[in-house]
Amino acid sequence: MILRGGRVVDPSQKLDAVTDVAFSGGKVAAIGTGLKADPGTDVRDVSKYIVTPGLIDLHTHVYWGGTSLGIDAEEFCRLSGVTTAVDTGSAGPGNFAGFRKHVIEPSQVRILAYLHVSHAGIFGFSHRIMVGESEELRLMNPIEAAKVADANRDLIVGIKVRVGLHSSGTSGLVPLDIALEVANEVGMPLMAHIDHPPPSYEEVLARLRPGDVLTHAFRPFPNTPATAQGTVKKVVLEARERGVLFDIGHGKGSFAFKTARAMLANGFYPDTISSDIHQLCIDGPAFDQVTTMSKFLCMGMELSDVVAASTVNAAMALRRPELGSLKPGSVGDATLISVKQGQFDYEDVVGEHLIGDRKIVSEGVVIGGRWWHPN
User: Fold this and answer.
1) Where in the chain is the domain with CATH 2.30.40.10?
2) How far, in Å, CA of 149 to CA of 72, rounded?
3) Which residues are annotated as a binding site for Zn(2+)?
4) What is the spatial distance between Cα 107 and Cα 110, in angstroms, rounded to a whole number?
5) Cβ distance 366 to 372 under 8 Å?
6) Where in this chain does the record put each Amidohydrolase-related domain (predicted)?
7) What is the phi-psi region of residue 203: left when phi exceeds 0, alpha when psi lies from -120 to 50, beta otherwise?
8) What is the pLDDT of residues 6-22, one digit of tens each?
9) Rg, the chain, Cα only
10) What pairs with residue 31 in β-bridges?
11) How many angstroms separate the CA atoms of 82 and 366, rounded?
12) Superfamily covering domain 2-52+329-347+357-373
């Protein structure tokens, strides 16, 4: 297949130019102007669109049917331009086998996963039931988590834990320490969720290692990375200096414009932009990946930086350099987007509204070198 004449924005190559992208054998074959098509090649005129590497949503919940918060990955990914959905802890060692067999393997969309250190993952998260899985320490299952992570390295990219008042009650840092033991044992990065104290933002960051991901990084008060004076907390700057990664993970309760404005004003951009899409936020305020990206575009980030935070940066966090790029030889995934001009109403998790002048819209996806949409 050849995508002809689109504006190709690929931060992994520092590329922003009108050119063609060719795919063959499920991979990117070539980039250049006037690429020749063989008979039978699917040539698509994409001159009206922007072509990016396939978007990676680093924080999703797609164990549909296996957990009450799971959404359908294929439907979501087509509508939001995502070609790789990274599930963050929906399943733990006690139910990952079902997630793999019934959801991941049949999916036409790539699904990777952070394995939860809690036995059944995030099992009690719905409109009516809210049980913090990390609050009950009897559910922590580090030995099995290490075994399952090691046996599923093709799909499991790291270990997940949720800490904070809503997810770990008064257990504080104990679940985080258990999860870090597992991550060290299997040689994988950790993704840590944080909500309300305890523990504090500072306490969690102090324990994270280079390559670990703090998700919900631009939270509202309490547990915000910004000070009351609008500066970035010293512990946050120190954590970035040693290689901790900061992920958005918008979701139902984890992203505030006030925090984001303060961080961006200080030049502190997120490493990765992700939606934290699940059943309780898919109808707002998160909606999807491109809406989350749009919010940062409207707050002043350049399109190339927004795309980088959803492609090459996410691929590096996953330690999957074959993703998030249109370099020849990379996985043959691409996303077609357009940037609409107008007046668009965006909402954060505390009810603040932002009227933005632009909106990123998904116009189609290429997966494995083929034009894709679910049946």
Assistant:
1) 2-52+329-347+357-373
2) 23
3) 59, 61, 160, 193, 216, 276
4) 7
5) yes
6) 50-340
7) alpha
8) 999 999 999 999 999 99
9) 20
10) 21
11) 10
12) Urease, subunit C, domain 1 (2.30.40.10)
Q: How far apart are the first and last CA of the chain?
A: 20
Residues belonging to the binding site are 59, 61, 160, 193, 216, 276
Task: Give strand pairing partners of 67.
Answer: 64
Report the amino acid identity of residue 317.
A
User: Model pTM?
Assistant: 0.98
Q: Which of 271, 310, 273, 276 is nearest to 295 (CA)?
A: 273
With beta carbons less than 8 A apart as the criterion, state whether 317 and 272 touch.
yes
Of the candidates 11, 42, 46, 5, which has an alpha carbon nearest to the alpha carbon of residue 363? 46
How would you label 4-20 residue by residue, b for 16+ Cβ within 10 Å and e otherwise? bbbbbbbbbbeebeebb
188 contacts 158 by C-beta, under 8 angstroms: yes
Identify the CATH number of the domain defined by range 54-318. Answer: 3.20.20.140
Tokens of 291: 């809406």
Q: What is the pLDDT of residues 191-211, one digit of tens each?
A: 999 999 999 999 999 999 999
What is the rounded CA–CA span in Å between residue 138 and residue 98? 22
Ranges in the chain annotated CATH 3.20.20.140: 54-318
At 375, the pLDDT band (50, 70, 90 cuts) reads low
Task: Identify which of 366, 363, 320 has the alpha carbon closest to the alpha carbon of residue 1.
Answer: 366
d(CA 202, CA 239): 10
Compute the distance between CA of residue 334 and CA of residue 23 in angstroms, rounded to an integer. 10
